[in-house]
């Protein structure tokens, strides 16, 4: 397995872990809405920065472009489907963000369920189909180069300090919700 696709798989694990925590958050009884809303605000922040800007950015700006160069079809093919799902996910995050601004837990949960279900099946397709194709058509040297571009992208959109902060946030949630 290539270095670049492995990096993306590791990020999938982090995103799936957060979705598991989000499930637990949604199962709480809402008796302390302020506490729950604070967590929801943090989750939206994580999804915007880590899942969308950092992770989807690595895929869209680098991996998918490389796949299209290798003649994996874009429009009407696997890359086009992935791009469409990223756009859909962005829309759900925006809905979660608007619901959070209105302190509307029910509306937030509705959008969060849509996002969660979309992302789980999206990640499954990438792990089991797209990245398998990528490992066949992108050689080791090209994977190393992609990985360097990922690192640079991560530094540009997140930076070292925020990366640590995001991981610390996940640990705090995991402890609070027992996941
Ligand atoms: Fe993706
Ligand atoms: Fe992904």
Write structural notes for this entry:
The protein is mostly helical. It has a single domain (3-177), classed as nmb1532 protein domain like (Four Helix Bundle (Hemerythrin (Met), subunit A), Up-down Bundle). It is 87% helix and 0% strand. It is built from six helices and no strands. The chain has helices at 3-27, 33-69, 78-101, 105-137, 140-157, 160-177. α1 packs antiparallel against α2, α1 (3-27) packs across α6 (160-177) and α2 (33-69) packs antiparallel against α5. The longest helix is centred in the first third of the chain and has 37 residues, at 33-69. The chain starts with a helix and ends with a helix. The model has no long low-confidence stretch (mean pLDDT 95). Bound molecules: fe (ii) ion (2 copies). One fe (ii) ion binds next to α2, α3 and α4.
SSE diagram, text form:
Layout: H1 3-27, H2 33-69, H3 78-101, H4 105-137, H5 140-157, H6 160-177
Bound molecules: fe (ii) ion (2 copies).
Provide a compact summary of the structure.
The chain has helices spanning 3-27, 33-69, 78-101, 105-137, 140-157, 160-177. By secondary structure, it is mostly helical.
Task: Name the descriptors.
mainly alpha; Four Helix Bundle (Hemerythrin (Met), subunit A); globular
The number of distinct structural domains comes to 1
Radius of gyration using CA atoms only: 17 Å
**What structural class results from the helix and strand content?**
mainly alpha
State the separation between the terminal residues, measured CA to CA: 29 Å
């Amino acid at each position: 397995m290539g270095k670049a696709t492995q990096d993306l798989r590791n990020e999938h694990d982090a995103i799936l872990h957060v979705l598991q925590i989000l499930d637990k958050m949604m199962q709480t009884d809402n008796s302390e809405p302020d506490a729950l809303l604070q967590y929801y605000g943090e989750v939206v922040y994580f999804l915007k920065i880590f899942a969308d800007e950092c992770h989807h950015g690595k895929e869209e700006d680098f991996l998918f472009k490389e796949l299209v160069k290798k003649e994996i079809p874009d429009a009407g093919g696997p890359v086009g489907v992935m791009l469409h799902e990223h756009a859909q996910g962005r829309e759900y995050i925006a809905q979660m963000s608007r619901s959070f601004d209105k302190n509307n837990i029910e509306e937030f949960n509705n959008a969060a369920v849509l996002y969660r279900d979309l992302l789980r099946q999206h990640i499954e397709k990438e792990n089991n189909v797209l990245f398998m194709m990528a490992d066949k058509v992108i050689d080791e040297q090209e994977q190393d180069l992609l990985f360097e571009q990922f690192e640079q992208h991560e530094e540009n959109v997140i930076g070292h300090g925020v990366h640590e902060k995001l991981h610390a946030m996940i640990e705090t949630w995991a402890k609070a919700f027992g996941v």
